[in-house]
Structures are given as C-alpha cells and as structure tokens.
Amino acid sequence: MSLLLAALIVLGAAALAGLAFVFLDRTVARPIVPEAARGGPTLIVIGASFSVLLAFVTLAAFQTYNSAKLGALTESDAVLAMSRTAALFPPSQRDELRGEFVCYGRAVVDQEWPAMRDGHPSALVDYWIGAYRAAFGRLDLRSPREQLGFQDLLNLAGTRTAGRQQRLSQATPSVPTPLWLGLVLGGCICVGVQLSLAGSRVRVHALLVAGLASIISAGLVVVYYLDHPYQPHTGGIQPSAMRRELVLMGNLEPSLRPGCSESGQPG
Predict the structure, then answer these.
(1) The whole model's pTM is what?
(2) Burial of 241 (0-12, 13-18, 19+ CB in 10 A)
(3) CA atoms within 13 A on the CB side of 246
C-alpha cells in the first residue's frame, strides 16, 4: 500500500462519513435519537471497546514490525562477524568463505527480500547456506587458532540462522482475517452510532463524525503498515543493514572476487 493510497483511504472515509451525516441530517424529519444524553453511555462503551481492541492490535503489529527489524539486524551482524572470523584460516579457505558469505548477503538483498513480500523465502539463499556449510567441512583445523575460529564460525552461524528465522517468521501477516473483520466492523459501528445524532440540525456534528472516521481509518492503515513490514511502502523495512555489511565485507578484502553476480546468482 502506497502512502498516497493510505491518504486517499483516510480522506475518503472522512468524506463519506461527513456526507452521510449531512444527508441524514437533511432528510430525517426529527432527530433519530430524540434524547442524545440517553445514548451517551452506549456511545462511551462502544468507543472504549473499539479503542482497546485497536490499541491491542496496534501493539501486536508493532511487535511484529520490531521483531522483523531486529531479526534482519541480527542476521547481517552475524554474517559480517563470520567474514571477519574467516581471517583465522589459510588464505585460500578464507577467500572461499568470504566469497560465499558475500554471495549469501547479495542473495538476501536481491532475492529473498522481494520473495518475503509474497510471504516465502528464497531458494537461492538456502543454496548459499549449503555452500558455506560444505566449505566448513573442508576447513583445515590442525592448529588451535583454526579450531577456535571454527567454533566461532559455528556459533555465529547459529546466530545468523536465528536472525533469519526471526526475519522470515514476520513475512506473513500476524493479524488474522477474522480480527481484521472485527476491526472494520467495530469502526463502522462507531461511526454508525455517531450518525444517529443526525436530525438535530447541528451541522458541526458532520465535522465530528468525519474526524472520527478519519481517526479510525488512520488507525487501521497503521496496523496494516506494521503488519506488512517488508512491503515497499514508506517506513517498510528494507535490507539496509545487509547492504551496509556487504560494503564492510568488501572493505575487508577489496581484491576478493565472489563466485556470484551482484544479485547473488551463482556464476
């Protein structure tokens, strides 16, 4: 969802609610609710219930967003640390490891990030995971330094795996469809109850109803944004952390020629 579409949804909801109030106010012969004060407790209960539900869902969606961001950062930091640890091995093995770590990062940026927008991982990233694990099995571990480096690589690989799993787990929306239906229905009920004030010939109520509709629709849009953290919208999580680590890995060994293209394809 683009920022323009989100703005149109909010403005459209406000305009529709305001126009509906004006229409009802002009057409009904007498107030729909003769004594508005009697409906006050009902309005308070409905509004408070919806506010609590929206606040709870917003908090849950924010946790989803924050978890996705943290997972991406953890993964990228672990890949950079693995590349640095590769310096403990002979030059040929060091270059092989670093090349595969770079290819892994490129595949995450150019292959898996777009795939996560559709809710699934990238097979190319799994390919490079298998490649560097195969390289682990060919490492020379005769010296204590190399043994210590290998142990560090295994620990960092576990951290990378956990970060990637955390990132991938947020690729699918956490707010289920029934809950979305409940939120939309609750918002419509809140606006509908306010429309019951029509007929009093107090036109300023139209602005109040429009304002309420805009706040409700804006809250739902925020939940959507937070629940879809990898979509290419304003505020969406981008692979900036992995891009930064790729630059740092390139600085470790500028002459390195990884066995992959800039998009992570083998070759």
Answers:
(1) 0.83
(2) buried
(3) 19
φ/ψ (deg, to 5) at 44: -65, -45
Tokens 């020629």 -> residue: 257
Nearest Cα neighbor of 236 from 244, 245, 227 is 227
pLDDT above 90: residue 74: yes
Are 205 and 197 in contact, with CB atoms under 8 Å apart?
yes
The pLDDT tens digits for 127-151 are 999 999 999 999 988 899 999 999 9
The type of residue at 63 is Q
Q: Give the whole-angstrom CA distance, residue 170 versus residue 165.
A: 9
CA atoms within 13 A on the CB side of 62: 8
Query: Which residue is associated with the tokens 């693995």?
Result: 82
> Quick check: helix, strand or coil at residue 266?
strand
Residue 262 backbone phi and psi in degrees, to 5: -65, -20
Contact 121, 170 (CB under 8 A): no
User: Amino acid letter at 75?
Assistant: E
First to last CA, the chain: 36
Amino acid type, 41: P
3-state helix, strand, coil in the chain (%, to 5): 75, 0, 25
pLDDT digits (tens, 9 = 90+) for 39-60: 567 777 888 888 898 999 999 8
- Bridge partners of residue 260, in order along the sequence: 266
The CA dihedral of 78, 83, 87, 91, to the nearest 10 degrees, is 150
Q: 85-94, 115-124, 162-171, 228-237 — which is least confidently predicted?
A: 228-237
Cβ contact 132:101 at 8 Å: yes
